[in-house]
Specification:
This protein has 280 residues and is α/β, with parallel strands linked by helices. The protein has 2 domains: 128 residues, 3-Layer(aba) Sandwich (Rossmann fold), CATH 3.40.50; 139 residues, NAD(P)-binding Rossmann-like Domain (Rossmann fold, 3-Layer(aba) Sandwich), CATH 3.40.50.720. Helices cover 37% and strands 20% of the residues. The strands form 2 sheets. The chain has a 6-stranded mixed sheet, with helices on both faces. Strands 9-8-7-10-11-12 form a 6-stranded parallel sheet, sandwiched between helices. β11, α8 and β12 form a beta-alpha-beta unit. The radius of gyration is 19 Å and the shape is globular. The two termini are 27 Å apart. Bound molecules: 2'-monophosphoadenosine-5'-diphosphate. It catalyses: L-quinate + NAD(+) = 3-dehydroquinate + NADH + H(+); shikimate + NADP(+) = 3-dehydroshikimate + NADPH + H(+); shikimate + NAD(+) = 3-dehydroshikimate + NADH + H(+). It is an enzyme of class 1 (oxidoreductase). This is Shikimate dehydrogenase (NADP(+)). Pathway: Metabolic intermediate biosynthesis; chorismate biosynthesis; chorismate from D-erythrose 4-phosphate and phosphoenolpyruvate: step 4/7; Aromatic compound metabolism; 3,4-dihydroxybenzoate biosynthesis; 3-dehydroquinate from D-quinate (NAD(+) route).
Length: 280
């Protein structure tokens, strides 16, 4: 029950009413028996500055930030983590005694999900990233921390792939290839990750690449979690790939936020269960 000592959290976005974060984080607080509460706030772009001032004024301990505020919010904070700077976006704010620190838990959340659910080590692995938008940028820095052999970006608009690769000063570890070289590159790939919007509801029959290009035993991963199993993953599975969907990224980005805010390990399985229940 909330009382005069309840510590407050929230998520801001536009739209926001679809967000599963409140049920997931409130379940986590309950599981750990800590006196915290988490709500969703609809904040339009022209209200972002006031919303952040409100966090300071009311002493919220933390905030999640979602579309369309992840980039604009950075200018309103006091400090940014290395990961947030690399991703060029913030999804989690921690209020450290009045100092607002911005983090990005999307990329590290994705990587933790990939490692815990399907591929325990990415060291020495060759990873192909399909797409070169904000979602790709968000995960590449986190993937690079795992010491893979190579991260190769391929995108419909090739110039965006080469610009994104060049923006990571990681000594040749992040490169780009033209889409026309993708079939050949897939023969060497251990993990192929779809970060494009291809296959997202309502266009669920679409696939980002021909799944017959994928190597048997390699991992096919999709950031999309609606649907839970995209057509890309369905076809990849038939092809003999191990598959990894996008729901884990959502769960673990929330788990990291919980851990930054409370200093306690997140009850990941309970968080996953309550989200799965709400989706069914
Ligand atoms: P997000 O923040 O989700 O990454 P984004 O920045 O708009 O969104 O990026 C969308 C990505 O999906 C881009 O890589 C885009 O390719 P382009 O750079 O060529 O636009 C990719 N994408 C979207 N629709 C696509 C399609 N029909 N075929 C291939 N790639 C597509």
């Amino acid at each position: 029950m909330m009382d005069s000592n309840t510590v407050l959290f929230g998520v801001i976005g536009d739209p926001i009413r679809h967000s599963k974060s409140p049920i997931m984080l409130n379940r986590a607080f309950k599981e750990k028996g800590i006196n915290c509460a988490y709500a969703a706030f609809h904040v339009a772009p022209n209200q972002l500055e006031q919303a952040i001032a409100g966090v300071r004024g009311l002493g919220f301990r933390g905030l999640n930030v979602t579309i369309p505020h992840k980039i604009e919010v950075m200018a309103l904070l006091d400090e940014l983590s290395e990961g947030a700077k690399a991703a060029g976006a913030v999804n989690t704010i921690v209020n450290e005694n009045g100092r607002l620190v911005g983090y990005n838990t999307d990329g590290i959340g994705y990587v933790r999900s990939l490692k815990e659910e399907i591929e325990p080590s990415l060291t020495g692995k060759t990873i192909i990233v399909l797409g070169a938008g904000g979602a790709a940028r968000g995960i590449i820095w986190a993937l690079a921390q795992e010491n893979p052999a190579a991260i190769i970006i391929a995108n419909r608009t090739e110039s965006k792939a080469s610009e994104l690769a060049a923006s990571f000063s990681l000594a040749g570890k992040v490169t780009s290839i033209p889409w026309s070289d993708l079939q050949e590159a897939c023969k060497q790939a251990d993990v192929v990750i779809n970060t494009t919007s291809v296959g997202m509801s309502p266009n669920i029959e679409k696939v980002p690449l021909d799944p017959s290009w994928l190597r048997i035993g390699s991992v096919a991963s999709d950031l999309i979690y609606n649907p839970l199993k995209t057509e890309f993953l369905k076809q990849a599975e038939l092809q003999g790939c191990r598959i990894h969907g996008g729901l884990g990224m959502f769960i673990y980005q929330g788990a990291y936020a919980f851990e930054y805010w409370t200093g306690q390990p997140a009850p990941v399985e309970e968080m996953r269960a309550v989200v799965m229940e709400s989706l069914s």
